[in-house]
Every structure is written in structure tokens, then in C-alpha cells.
Amino acid sequence: MEKDRIIKIGWIGLGNIGSVMAGLLLKEGYPIIVHDLRREAGEKLVAAGAQWAATPQEVAEMAETIVTSLPGPPQVQTVMEGEKGVFSGLRAGSTWIEMSTTDTEEVQRLGIIAEQKGASVLEAPVSGGLTLAKAGGITILVGGPKDVFDAQLPVLQTIGAKILHMGPLGSASIVKVISNLLALGHLIMAGEAFMLGKQAGIDMKAFLEGIKASSGNSYTIETEMPLVYNGSYDVGWTMALAIKDLGLTMQLARKHSVPLEIGALIEQIFVRATVQYGRDANSTQAVKLLEDAMNVYLRVPGYEDFR
Predict the structure, then answer these.
(1) Which pLDDT tens digit goes with each residue over 93-118?
(2) pLDDT tens-digit series, residues 16-58
(3) Catalytic pick among 3, 44, 176, 255
(4) Domains and their CATH numbers in the chain
(5) By C-alpha distance, which of 115, 155, 111 is closest to 1?
(6) Does the annotation mark 176 as catalytic?
(7) Stretch (H or E) spanning 188
């Protein structure tokens, strides 16, 4: 689908990453209609030229491509099937792109309803975090028919750098939640490893560079440990979202009879961190559990401006 063929893109869900991605499309010249439960979440986009819609139904009635970027399955279900939801206004010939991290079976169920109304469906969860999203460098994992993927590729390429087709609808959700299990596990291990390095007397700036250049490196270490170093923990992703995604992973494991012994431990560590710091705390604060327990903090000068 060429950009000038898109009448309007409707964007529902203006959280940290959703608002950034909608802004990238607007900056590139796409006409955007936006909606969120919080009117204030769309104020900057409206000031920059986006159109506000009062309900998801209005978005669907006006847009050719409707994107949802929401916290999880319950919110998606409400937006799609609720009173004045997307399905109330969804037009034949339009496309729904589900960018939330959601349940495979749920996106397939909702996809059938959308297709029965004559719409095409893609799932397109993102990976890479807020920093990459702002730079247009985020990865987008896509599930759905290949022809629909090809048609919507220009839209997705405006938002992200790596656009990967994972297979039929539901495939991308599986890859995404497993990826998040790995990332959150890396975070817990990194907190323990960095604390060990500090207590062993290693210069922590040198320690980070050494790990980054070694086989123990990961994207999580490169992008999240500096946020621990500066004490902000400001990854732009909450404990509640981490718990939700870990829950989806464990649900998937039970369905396929795969024992995730370490995965279950990671989930419980994040449950404890959520109890300690609250659902809205940054997920990176899971490292703070060990810091608080030891009364030793991984602070290093020189990382104050890292975002």
C-alpha cells in the first residue's frame, strides 16, 4: 500500500510507545486519527495535526487502517467489542493492525470477527523499548496473511527498522512473549552479576564495557543497566506490563506442556517487585530488590543523561 493511497490511519492507545509511533506516522505525512481513554494523552499529537476521535467506533468509521496499541487482552477486547468499539464502525476493505502484546488465541478470535466484517487483520507487536521507538528503530514482529503484510509494509517501515513476518496470525504474539521472557530474565541475571562485580571491587564503568564486549552481553544490559547506573530506572515499561507478559508466557507453556522452571522463578521475582514498588513502577526496578536487600546501589557517575 503506497502512502498516498491511505486515506487516514486510526491510532487507538497513546501510551509511552504508542504515542511515539503515532507521532512518527504523523511526521511522515500520514493523516492520523487518534483516541485514548485519556484525552490529555493525545493533546500533543492533536496540536501537531492529528484528529481526535471520541470513541474507537469513530476511529473505525473514518480510518482505512486502524492500529491498536494497548496494555493487554482485556483492553483490546473492550476497544474492539465494547459499546462504541471498533467492530461497531469497522468497514469492509479496511485493515486492523493489532500492535499490543496479547494472547495468541485472543487475537485469532478477534481476527475472525474482523474478517467476517470484510476487514483484513495483522498482529504487529513491537520489541526494543522506548529509546529505539523514538528513533524509529524498533523491531516489529508481524503475523497474518503475507499479502496484507506486503500491503501495510510502508506503514510499518515508517514506525520501525526491522519488520519481520513471523507467519500466520498468532505467530508474532508467541515470539513476542517469549522474547520478553528472555529480556526480563536477562535483567534479573544482570542485576545479580553487576552486584557481584561491584562487591568484588571492579570499577563499574569498566565492568559494563567489559560485559558489553564479551559473550555475556545482551540488549537488556546495553539499554537498561545504564538506567540502573543513573538511578532513574526509567525504561518506560511498567511492572504491570512485565507481569502481564510473563503470565502470557506461562499460559503458553502450560498449553504446550513445556516446563519453564527458570521462567516461573522470573515471574515470581517480578511479582515480588510489583508488591514492593507498585504496578506503575518501571520494570527495571526489579534490580532494586537486590540493591535494597544489600543496601548497596549500582550508581555510576557519567550516565545521568542516558535515556
Answers:
(1) 999 999 999 999 999 999 999 999 99
(2) 899 999 999 999 999 999 999 999 999 999 999 999 999 999 9
(3) 176
(4) 3-168 (3.40.50.720), 174-294 (1.10.1040.10)
(5) 155
(6) yes
(7) helix 171-199
